[in-house]
């Protein structure tokens, strides 16, 4: 499986947070922080926009690191992605 596919199935290679991190692009970090803040109704700062990919060793956004229930579930079960699980789990 492609290493940049997140546990939830998103393609990390196309994630603007990862692109900003890889390219050390502070203007993209600011753009993403504003968009994600507006989208989620919480304050997300540009300093939080650092991630190399969900399943890649290295830095993660605070959400991806410890708050994403899909990532935590897949890690606990030792799965590559959520799609590898045979259980139906509703995460709310």
Helix content: 40-55%
Radius of gyration: 14 Å
Shape call: globular
Distance between the amino and carboxyl termini: 27 Å
State mean pLDDT (0 to 100 scale): 91
Helices and strands: which structural class? mainly alpha
Total helical elements: 4
Strand content: under 5%
Largest sheet: none
What does this structure look like?
With about 90 residues, this protein is mostly helical. About 40% of the residues lie in helices and about 0% in strands. The chain has helices at about 15-20, 25-40, 60-65, 70-75. Helix 1 (about 15-20) runs antiparallel to helix 2. The longest helix has 15 residues, at about 25-40. The model has no long low-confidence stretch (mean pLDDT about 90).
């Amino acid at each position: 499986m492609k290493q940049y596919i997140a546990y939830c199935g998103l393609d990390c290679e196309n994630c603007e947070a990862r692109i900003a991190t890889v390219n050390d692009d502070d203007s993209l970090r600011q753009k993403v922080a504003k968009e994600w803040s507006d989208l989620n109704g919480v304050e997300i700062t540009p300093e939080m926009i650092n991630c190399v990919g969900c399943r890649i060793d290295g830095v993660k956004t605070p959400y991806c690191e410890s708050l994403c229930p899909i990532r935590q579930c897949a890690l606990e079960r030792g799965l590559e992605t959520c799609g590898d699980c045979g259980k139906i789990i509703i995460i709310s």
